[in-house]
Amino acid sequence: MKAYRKYLEPAYGEKAFSVEIPAPEDIDIENPKVWRNKHIPEAAAGILNAVKKTGCYDEIMTVETTDTYLERDGERIPLRLYHPDGEGAFPVLVFYHGGAFMYNTFAIYEYVTRYIAKYAGALVVAVEYRLAPEYRCPVGREDAYAALEWAEAHCGEYGGDASRISVCGDSAGGNFAAGVSLMARDRKGPAIRRQIMIYPVTCFVFEEQPYSEQRYAKGYFLEYNSLEDPLAPYFAPDDEEARTDPYNSPLLAEDLAGLPEAVFLSAECDPLLDQGLMYAARLEDAKVPVEYHIFEGMIHSFLNYTYEKSFACLDAVCAAVRR
User: Choosing a second label site near 56 at 20 to 30 A (CA), which of 64, 74, 195, 239?
Assistant: First the structure.
């Protein structure tokens, strides 16, 4: 893959002094359900305990939720709706959680989605898409797109405004936000107001390792070297065509014209930083409006913590949804 310019040139500095670097998450591919059953409750409890110490906890816990589902391929895909205060019609945000396409659930992101519903005044539709390696690409991505279609068709029943739908996700979820934006354009599907991408994966195929990977691939929580195919379990074995499919690797798309306004929120000390910067530049070249935020000193997944910049990131998401 040829090298692309970056939207801007970051400082590539060191992590903030206050940032704690947890051990890398290493899913047991042979026993993914067993690994998730242990990891997810532990991670969710840790996040909840941290959020309880913040000033927003009592307020976001007033957000009411509705659990429902969509049907696809004979299976039920869980959806959780987070209801804002007041009377509609509300802007709508379809949210795709991160987790390397292989783990995480609603529970990990409860504080994020509640915060957005509360302070953006938005109806948030969170999607429990199916995970690899049990469900390989494109199952999860198509679940994500089906959730967008569901939101357009049904959000009005919950006070949402179908003319103001945005998509958002972090990491793997950011990849889905980018991918479904391309899919909606090409399939003449739901009109998306904004695509909001938080430290997204934008390409699975690199001939040379991006500098941010060289700088932060070890010792900064997410250990990611694109030349070693770190997300191989997401794909069927030897499915190189899927890796270069623009819906999976939007950076490789030939035509990016006509896509919704893009908002990027990246961590500085993240191996995925350059992926976002390169995709933002390509969108800018295609005349797509771009807004870019880099949170200095932060590491991948900082959204799920309670640093001051975690809340600044959430506030930037809320502002983008409200506009």
Answer: 195
Q: What value does the CA radius of gyration of the chain take, rounded to a whole number of Å?
A: 18
The one catalytic residue among 143, 170, 245, 270: 270
Contact 72, 140 (CB under 8 A): no
Q: Are 193 and 262 in contact (CB under 8 A)?
A: no
Q: How far apart are the first and last CA of the chain?
A: 36
10 Å CB burial of residue 185 (0-12, 13-18, 19+) is middle
Sheet bearing 90-96, strands edge to edge: 64-72, 75-83, 123-127, 90-96, 160-170, 192-198, 261-269, 290-299
Mean pLDDT of 160-182: 98
The question of whether 171 is a catalytic residue gets the answer: yes
Amino acid in position 93? L
- The answer on pLDDT for 128 being more than 60 is yes
* Residues shown for the chain: 323
Residues 93-113: tens digit of each pLDDT:
999 999 999 999 988 999 999
C-alpha span between 144 and 96 (Å, rounded): 7
Residue 249 among the catalytic residues: no
Measured CA to CA, the distance from residue 13 to residue 32 in angstroms comes to 35
Active site residue 212: no
Q: Which of 171, 226, 301, 310 is catalytic?
A: 171
State how far Cα 50 lies from the chain centre.
21
Is residue 69 within 8 Å of 133, Cβ to Cβ?
no
- For residue 269, which phi and psi values (nearest 5 degrees)? -95, 60
User: What is the distance between the alpha carbons of residues 218 and 50, in angstroms, rounded to a whole number?
Assistant: 26
Q: Provide φ and ψ at 144, rounded to 5°.
A: -60, -40
Record the pTM: 0.97
